[in-house]
Amino acid sequence: MSKSTTWDMQGSWDAKGGWATQGRCDEHGAAPRGLASAGLDRMRHVLARSVESGAVPGLVALVGRGADTHVEVMGTLRAGGGEPVRRDTLFRMASATKPVTAAAAMILVEECRLRLDDPVDPWLPELADRKVLARIDAPLEETVPAHRPITLRDLLTFTFGFGAVLAPPDAYPIQVAIRELGLDTTAPEFGPDEWIRRLGELPLMRQPGELWQYHTGSDVLGVLIARVAGQSFEAFLRERIFEPLGMKDTGFHVPEDRIHRLPVSYAHDPATGELTVWDEAAGGKYSRPPVFAAGGDGLVSTADDYHAFYRMLLNKGTLGGERVLSRASVELMTTDQLTPGQKTEKDAFGDHFGRHGGYGFGMAVRTHRRDLASPGQFGWDGGLGTSAYADPAEDLVGILLTQTAQDSPDTPGLIKDFWTTAYQATV
């Protein structure tokens, strides 16, 4: 990054009492090398439109290309006005946590403490000797033996045989059992050992290696990493990823002295579409250490911290002289790992899960040119309103952080528009 930063204050107070655009930060001045000012201007106007309309109360957007970084900061921490969003505002990263968890697992592979294709049974005996549902709608007792044990590769690629059921609630007996065991929440009231024990009570939905199924593999990885490392999952991430990369604001909760930097999190009322509070800052879910630090969706972070993580991946495992992963590991993580058969369910939900074409370790990998992004782009979104990807062909990192869930067309549409303008800013 450059040593100099200039601020161009632009915007106006809207009817809701929120500053539509607090600040525009261009490192390297008003026309940073490698980023086109026309594209950045369009980005600013597109983002401001969503804030001014009230679709999202606030946001931080970052586009980095090589040494050049452009940041937009808009809106307020709460709908209707109040304290402004700042560049260091903390956001709930949700599923954008998954690539970080995958990177942590690959650190243990590089240390030869885990192997990609070895069974995880020695570390996760709760998942040994699996039974598999005869079919997804079968009673829980109607099972067949698993053809083979679960491996680390299965967990990293979400093909270990268990995951989110993409069907209406309680459509199948396995969904009822998941809910009754308290495994359907992002904030269980029990720790990782109890979580994995309860998961082990249930049969798999598919044979190991058969099908990509969303989410659960990352949560299992968090438990596995902690057991192999002999320390808490959060402590391992902090020691091996966050501290080497200078990610000083990333963790599984927000300490009291930083809680003022966490915005209110909003979802949408399914009947009216209006914003409704999902999580407050003070006293909310992220205001205290979680009982279960979830590898699938638990992190809180900032745009600059995540920029460091993705820049490390673009740099083939290094940042600022610190090597976190080998070049070979990064290339493996960011290469499509799935067969066409394994992608069947993912691709059935095309615009959400299947639009990228491929999936690596804990993140999407673009295999075809469907929009402005280059083949080889990698990263993932978060359901609470976040998006983070890197494009090796363009040496580009883009990060959009909002506090508004992707449960209505508004936030997904904003994310698409952000990426459209991000690629217009490349020259």
UniProtKB/TrEMBL annotation:
<dbReference type="InterPro" id="IPR012338">
    <property type="entry name" value="Beta-lactam/transpept-like"/>
</dbReference>
<protein>
    <submittedName>
        <fullName>CubicO group peptidase (Beta-lactamase class C family)</fullName>
    </submittedName>
</protein>
<dbReference type="InterPro" id="IPR050789">
    <property type="entry name" value="Diverse_Enzym_Activities"/>
</dbReference>
<dbReference type="InterPro" id="IPR001466">
    <property type="entry name" value="Beta-lactam-related"/>
</dbReference>
<feature type="domain" description="Beta-lactamase-related">
    <location>
        <begin position="45"/>
        <end position="410"/>
    </location>
</feature>
<dbReference type="Pfam" id="PF00144">
    <property type="entry name" value="Beta-lactamase"/>
</dbReference>
